[in-house]
Amino acid sequence: MAKKTKKQSGGTPATVALTAAGVDHTVHAYDHDPSHPSYGEEAAEAMGVSPERVFKTLVADVDGALTVAVVPVAGSLDLKALASAVGGKRAAMADPALAERTTGYVRGGISPLGQRKKLPTVLDASATAHSTICVSAGRRGLEVELSPEDLAKLTEAVLAPIGRN
To answer: Are the beta carbons of 55 and 130 closer than 8 angstroms?
Structure first.
């Protein structure tokens, strides 16, 4: 018989990780609209936050290794810059199913925090222009706001200009 484990109170693996680390953060919940064309833009609109302060978490394949990129929803990921930031040559978006299996989250809800398998992470350097930024808290319709410095520290992220407008 399978052993049942009690789910930790406190929400998603991302919010549990933040609480365990003692990091100041604010969780923002909103009603997710499955018909919205962009998860990140929907989050920015729902929270009334500038899209430059809301960051999306993307998983890419850099020379055969999965790598997390955290970039503003107002722009896109520069794959060449991401590869360069981690000392790689080529980057491509990862297979969505592989990204979901590896991180433990679903697309549109992938958080850079509390992932099933710790992956190298690169945070777009523009994050440091803000006192706080928002990233997915681990499911669609849930964002977490924290300082970019805390995010970088917890994910051991490299800061690099990997976003494009």
So the answer is: no
Residues near 98 by Cβ (< 8 Å), separated by ≥ 6?
59, 66
pLDDT digits (tens, 9 = 90+) for 75-124: 999 999 999 999 999 999 999 999 999 999 999 899 999 999 999 999 99
- Taking 60 as the threshold, does the pLDDT of residue 1 lie above it? no
3 state SS of 40:
helix
The model carries a pTM of 0.91
